[in-house]
Every structure is written in C-alpha cells, then in structure tokens.
C-alpha cells in the first residue's frame, strides 16, 4: 500500500540544475579530502562519508530558503554543505580546531549551526527526528512559514522515535518533511532483514501522510518530490515522508574495517549509477550546462576546498578555557522578594501561577505534556491555563515521552521556551536520550554559542502507595550530567520563584516536584511575579550544633526533627539547597564550619545518591572542620513497595532524621 502519490513536475531550470550539480560535486570532493585527512590522522575519531548519496542532500536542500531548518544524522556532511555551510569551518571542525563551526567541541558527528538553522548532525540514530519536529512546532507556534527537513537513514526508521515523530507531526500538522536516505544498510544490517515493509515510505500510511519511494541517485527527482512535500508543508498541509533509495560507496565509517556484507554485484550496479555522473549526463544532454561550465564549477570547488583544508590545518587547537565556558549559559541574576506576604497557596497552585505569569509575560513560553490541557494536569498544576492561553500554548500530547520531550528540545533550540511536563517522573526513563544526549549537550557541542531554554518538570517521590514504577526519586541521575540544571523546591514560595527562574534560564532545567508536596503543602506566596536565583540555598532554620541538608519532603521532616531536638537543647540548622546543580556549596560549607556536624536527608536511595556527592564535597573542602563522620538518612535500598506500612518504613521519617542527628552528636 502507498500513501498519497506526490505530483511529478516538468524539466528543471538550468540555474537549479547548476546549483544542485555544484553542491553534489562540493560534497564529493569534501568527502574525498576528509578521507585523506582521516588517513593522515588530521581528522580524528570517525567520520561517515556521504559519497554515493550526494543527490539527496543536494536535491532536497535546493528547495530550501536560508531560514528553513534541517536536522541531520551521523552521515551529515552533505546536509550541512547543501544547507550552505562554509566548508572551511567544517574542515576546521573535523580537525578539532577553534575556528570550526563548533569550536572543536562537536566534530564530524555533531556539526550544527543555528545561524544557518542547521539543527545538527547527531550521534544518536534517529534523534534528529524529534528535534526537527520541535523546530517545526516552533515555526507553527510563531505563525511562520518556514519548513524543516529531517534527514535520517534506513536504520533510523526502526527507532521508536521515528514512529512517534511521524505521529506527532501528523496530528499537529507540522511543517516538516521526513527524508529517509535508504542506503539499504545500517552498518552491517540490511534493511530488508530489519524492516517490516518492503518500502519504508509505506509507513506513511499509518501516520496519515503522503509517502513516496524515489530514486535517491537522481537529484532532479529528489528535487521535485521533496519540493512538492515542502510546498505542502509550507502551505500548512502537514508533513510528508520521502524515502530516497541510494547506496553508500565506502565502509560504514572511516574508522570501520569490517567484512562488508554487501555483494559485489550490488556494489557494481550502484556505483555504475554514480549520482554525479548521472547528473552530468543529464545536463549535457539537455544542454542545461556546457562541458566548459562543468569544468569551471569543478575548478572553483577544488580551489574552495584547498583553501578550506589549509584554513583547518593552520587554525589553532580548541582551548580548555573555551571548553569549560561552553557547558552552561550564564544564569540570570535575580533578587528574592523581601517579604513573602500572607496569601496562602498550595504547592501546585504556586507552580501554576508561575507558569501563568511567565506565559503572560513571554509569548515564547508554552506547556506540553500528557493531560495538561482541559483537565489541568492530573495533579492540577496547569489548572486554568488551557482556558487562559488556548490549545496551541497548552498542548496535550500523545503518550510519546521521548518525542514530546525531544520536540521540546527542538523548539527550545529554535527559539521557544517550552515547558515539558512529565506526568510522573518515573517515565523520564523514556526521555533520557533527549535530556542527557540532546538537551544537556547541544550548547556544548555547538561550542557554547547557543542555548536550550527548556524546563522538564513533574512529580517524583513516594508516599501515596503508587509502588515501584511511580514513586522514585531520581535526582542523582540528572545531577551527574554537565549541562543540566536540577531544581527541587520544598515550599510553595520556592516552587513559584524557582519555576519562574527555571523558565527564564537559558539552560535545560530538570525541575523536580514532590507529589506529596502538591497534596499537603500550603504556604505564603507573593502574588507579584518574582524569581529566586538559581544555585542559592535557603537556610530554613538557623542552628549551631548540627547542620542538616534536606531536600523536598525531607525539609519539613528535618524542621520537625529540629523542633523536637530543640526541647533537649540541641540546636539544628536546616538547609534546603533548592538547586541541586549548580549546588550552593558556600552556604553548606559555611554552616558545617560553624556546626562541625553534617546530616544529609533525602528520599532517594543512599547508594550513589545526591547525598554521597554532597558528603564528598564537604569531605574535600571542610574535612578539618568536621567533628564526626557525615551521616546520610535516605530510603532503604529497595524499589518502593506497595504495602502501606512497608512504604512508610522505606521513606525516611522524622524519627530516622532525629536518629541521624543523634548519631553525629556522639
Ligand atoms: C541509538 C544508536 N544506536 C546505535 C548506534 C551505532 N550506529 C551508528 S550508525 C549505525 C547505523 C545506522 O544506519 P542508518 O540509520 O541506516 O544510517 P547509515 O549509516 O546507513 O547512513 C549504528 C548502528 C548509534 N549511534 N545510536
Ligand atoms: Mg543506512
């Protein structure tokens, strides 16, 4: 079965054919130079040659405007060149130089450039599809008419995110064209052996969009068919899938040296269909280009590449200072309000108010997630936002965590400030690639120029008998990753001010809300818009004998423990770091230098937990100030049990915090 057939057009103008030919030739020579440089040890790591597939990038991108977007994959040089990238900056990047597109931090597999709206090559198979979907969503939200091409291989078409992205793009009618470069192998795996349909384009039917399989070695056909899909997308008619059949001439990558499973007959047959030779024959035959014109195009490309290689070789190496500076965009300076006022709000109401005020202030802020719309979220965090801002900015998503999170990353890169709600934080496992490999690394891999202003928020923690898959506290996974900000508030006041700061921050923020706080916690919250600085702890209670650093639900328990011990004359200082990464080490160390004793209380597991990191920081920097070993009060090392009494036993109680404090008093 086929999707709607796309229309075929007439002969192409000579000017278009010349542009396509010159791009194809530039890509071919770029890859030949790159192979030589790799063999000479100047291009490191690996690089994936696009030789044999040039017609697809050149033909498809010849339809694009400079302000359109492309997303690419590991075999990405051709796409960048076809989108107008400067081959000198590409060569410098491949050589790891400071002058490269990504300052030498990205390399061949991660070249991206937001000045050209190149969302990046990507080292994770399939990952560019959700990112491209997100960029298309950004275009749609802004009411623009740019389009996105998302390139991927036949291997990428078997990723779950392929299916989720096509579905999401289709239901939201996004301006994106999915171009599958079917070179018939994913490393050593034949697509015939790994794909459930004869043609990948047939899958379009399942997602209600046109799909067509074309000859990917015929640049004119690629130009026409992708052009038609682009016109559809630009006219607001939604996405298409184009499958371009092709063949890579070389090994999987320049580093790969495996037995090639492809037959000699197939190899010979496809190499005989060299896309550049096919194009030359066509333009000479129909007299679109003369032989001397072809020669002069080739000479110009040759000179351009000679200059590019020289530029790369002569450029300085990437520097350590630039590398360190690339990880985080600077946080904005904020000042907390002097007075919290008297109005009482619940924790979820405070979060909702933060989102409402930011959405009112900044039209680029929008919320998406499961059931966040009309229902206002299963914990009521987005109550009223749908009525106030409408379905475009308060978007119910399908149950496609990886892809709506990835679309959040793509939309953030493309200039929006998305809020992505994780319905229950345990489901973040399905989003991990998008958070850890994409959001956290994008700015860095681009050399520290660009920003990913994204908030991923939702409830974690136990206490309501939801058992092992709906109750975890997972902050340590995220505090481990450079590039992420991790925030975990414990009061409605902190929740509002920190969520506003998170939305305004230019880094991806993992914003952890405890579901017991939604249900139980009310407190004073100013009506006015305010933001709490990221990376600033709060001393919730001053004391002199013991420091307790507590997070989320443990803060109120630590405060209750402190009140209990006060009766015995023991003075406990309770600090809530509020931001777990970056951590306000100074406030914690100053407290330990005063009390000489530290207890850490969190609901997450002890083993490999955030407390282990904090204990190490204190040991490294204030060992001589400690009068007792650091004590950790944490969940038992078991998945959360369903049984009521067992769950209560697993999560640290006030009594266990009291016992922890007594243990360091000796
Ligand atoms: C998620 C993921 N799995 C595996 C790999 C390792 N890997 C890199 S490229 C590749 C084959 C991809 O094939 P395809 O998508 O058809 O692209 P092609 O290399 O053929 O252009 C594999 C298995 C990876 N980078 N990412
Ligand atoms: Mg392939």
Topology:
Layout: H1 14-39, H2 54-61, E1 69-71, H3 77-82, H4 87-94, H5 128-142, E2 148-153, H6 160-171, E3 176-182, E4 185-186, E5 189-190, H7 191-194, E6 211-215, H8 219-234, E7 240-245, H9 264-271, H10 275-285, H11 291-314, H12 320-325, E8 344-346, H13 347-361, E9 365-369, H14 385-389, E10 394-396, H15 401-413, E11 417-421, H16 432-445, E12 455-460, H17 475-479, E13 485-487, H18 492-504, E14 509-514, H19 515-520, E15 522-524, E16 538-541, E17 546-550, H20 553-566, E18 572-576, E19 579-581, H21 585-595, E20 598-605, H22 610-622, E21 631-635, H23 644-650, H24 654-665
Parallel strand pairs: 1-2, 2-3, 3-7, 6-7, 9-10, 9-11, 11-12, 12-14, 13-14, 17-18, 17-20, 20-21
Antiparallel strand pairs: 4-5, 8-15, 13-19, 16-18
Helix pairs in contact: 1-2, 1-10, 1-11, 2-8, 4-11, 5-6, 5-15, 13-18, 15-16, 20-24, 21-22
The protein binds thiamine diphosphate (TPP) and magnesium ion.
Magnesium ion (MG) binds next to strand 4.
């Amino acid at each position: 079965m086929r999707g709607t057939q796309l229309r075929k057009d007439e002969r192409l103008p000579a000017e278009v054919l010349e542009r396509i030919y010159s791009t194809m030739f530039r890509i071919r020579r770029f890859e030949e130079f790159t192979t030589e440089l790799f063999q000479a040890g100047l291009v490191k790591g690996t690089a994936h040659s696009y030789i044999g597939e040039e017609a697809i990038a050149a033909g498809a991108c010849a339809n694009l405007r400079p302000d359109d977007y492309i997303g690419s994959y590991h075999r990405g040089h051709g796409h960048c060149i076809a989108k107008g990238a400067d081959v000198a900056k590409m060569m410098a990047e491949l050589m790891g130089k400071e002058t490269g597109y990504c300052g030498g931090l990205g390399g061949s597999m991660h070249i991206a450039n937001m000045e050209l709206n190149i969302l990046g090559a990507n080292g994770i198979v399939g990952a560019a599809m959700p990112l491209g979907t997100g960029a298309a969503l950004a275009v749609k939200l802004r009411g623009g008419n740019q389009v996105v091409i998302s390139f991927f291989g036949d291997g990428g078409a078997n990723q779950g995110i392929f299916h989720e992205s096509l579905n999401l793009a289709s239901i939201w009618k996004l301006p994106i064209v999915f171009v599958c470069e079917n070179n018939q192998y994913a490393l050593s795996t034949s697509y015939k052996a790994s794909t459930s349909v004869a043609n990948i384009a047939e899958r379009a039917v399942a997602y209600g969009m046109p799909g067509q399989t074309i000859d990917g070695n015929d640049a004119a056909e690629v130009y026409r068919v992708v052009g038609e899909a682009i016109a559809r997308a630009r006219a607001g008619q939604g996405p298409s899938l184009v499958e371009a059949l092709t063949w890579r001439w070389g090994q999987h990558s320049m580093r790969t040296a495996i037995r090639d499973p492809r037959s000699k007959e197939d190899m010979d047959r496809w190499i005989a269909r060299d896309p550049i030779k096919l194009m030359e024959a066509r333009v000479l035959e129909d007299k679109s280009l003369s032989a001397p014109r072809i020669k002069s195009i080739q000479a110009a490309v040759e000179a351009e590449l000679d200059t590019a290689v020289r530029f790369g070789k002569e450029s300085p190496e990437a520097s350590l200072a630039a590398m360190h500076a690339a990880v985080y965009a600077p946080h904005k300076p904020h000042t907390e309000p002097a007075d919290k006022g008297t109005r009482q709000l619940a924790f979820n109401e405070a979060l909702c108010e933060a989102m409402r005020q930011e959405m009112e202030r900044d039209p680029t802020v929008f919320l998406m997630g499961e059931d966040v719309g009309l229902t206002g979220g299963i914990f009521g965090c987005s109550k009223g936002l749908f009525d106030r801002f409408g379905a475009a900015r308060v978007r119910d998503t399908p149950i496609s965590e990886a892809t709506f999170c990835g679309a959040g990353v793509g939309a953030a890169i493309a200039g929006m400030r998305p809020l992505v709600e994780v319905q229950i934080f345990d489901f973040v496992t399905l989003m991990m690639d998008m958070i850890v490999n994409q959001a956290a690394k994008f700015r860095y891999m681009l050399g520290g120029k660009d920003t990913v202003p994204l908030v991923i928020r939702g409830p974690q923690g136990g206490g309501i008998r939801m058992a092992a898959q709906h109750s975890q506290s997972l902050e340590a996974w995220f505090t481990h990753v450079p590039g992420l900000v991790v925030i975990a508030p414990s009061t409605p006041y902190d929740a509002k001010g920190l969520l506003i700061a998170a939305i305004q921050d230019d880094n991806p923020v993992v914003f952890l809300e405890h579901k017991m706080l939604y249900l139980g916690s009310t407190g004073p919250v100013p009506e006015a818009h305010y933001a709490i600085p990221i990376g600033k702890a709060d001393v919730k209670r001053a004391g002199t004998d013991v420091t307790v650093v507590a997070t989320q639900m443990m803060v109120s328990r630590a405060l209750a423990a402190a009140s209990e011990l006060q009766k015995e004359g023991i003075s406990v200082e309770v600090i809530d770091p509020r931001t777990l990464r970056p951590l306000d080490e100074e406030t914690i160390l100053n407290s330990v230098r005063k009390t000489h004793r530290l207890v850490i209380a969190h609901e997450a597991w002890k083993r490999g937990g955030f407390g282990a990191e904090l204990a190490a920081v204190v040991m490294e920097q204030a060992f001589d100030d400690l009068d007792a070993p650091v004590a950790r009060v944490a969940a038992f090392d078991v998945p959360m049990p369903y049984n009521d009494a067992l769950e209560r036993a697993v999560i640290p109680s006030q009594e266990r915090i009291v016992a922890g404090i007594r243990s360091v008093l000796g």
